[in-house]
Design goal:
Elements (H helix, E strand, L loop, with lengths): L10 H13 L2 H13 L2 E2 H8 L3 H13 L3 E6 L2 E6 L1 H16 L11
Antiparallel strand pairs: 1-3, 2-3
């Protein structure tokens, strides 16, 4: 089997792109902000908070859970989600490492 496009890039680059894609929707950013503010929630609270349909919220939660930035527990009909602190720190470090690679050029050395 041939190479996929992602095989052309490093593991770090693929991971960063995957995370950036998950952050690339304003509803997901709103979910993350809400979880940070409340430090946990029930799925129904998110529907009311965001004003989106339940299936739409569930799809966004699934995207965030797939990258591991949120974790959830099921208690009967209720599902509670919160930020996964371990993955949060990994993602934070991943972005910080990328941003720290940039060294501000001396004026006139860049276009």
């Amino acid at each position: 089997m041939g190479l996929t496009k992602s095989d052309l890039f490093t593991k770090e680059q693929n991971n960063l792109a995957l995370v950036a894609k998950a952050f690339a929707h304003p509803a997901r950013v709103a979910i993350i902000h809400f979880l940070i503010k409340t430090n946990a929630c029930v799925n129904g609270d998110l529907v009311q908070e965001l004003g989106l349909a339940q299936p739409t919220v569930s799809q966004h939660l699934r995207e965030l859970k797939d990258i591991g930035i949120i974790q959830g527990t099921i208690e009967g009909p209720r599902v509670s989600y919160c930020i996964n602190p371990t993955r949060w720190n990994e993602i934070k470090d991943l972005f910080n490492q990328t941003f720290e690679k940039f060294k501000n050029p001396i004026q006139g050395d860049c276009c």
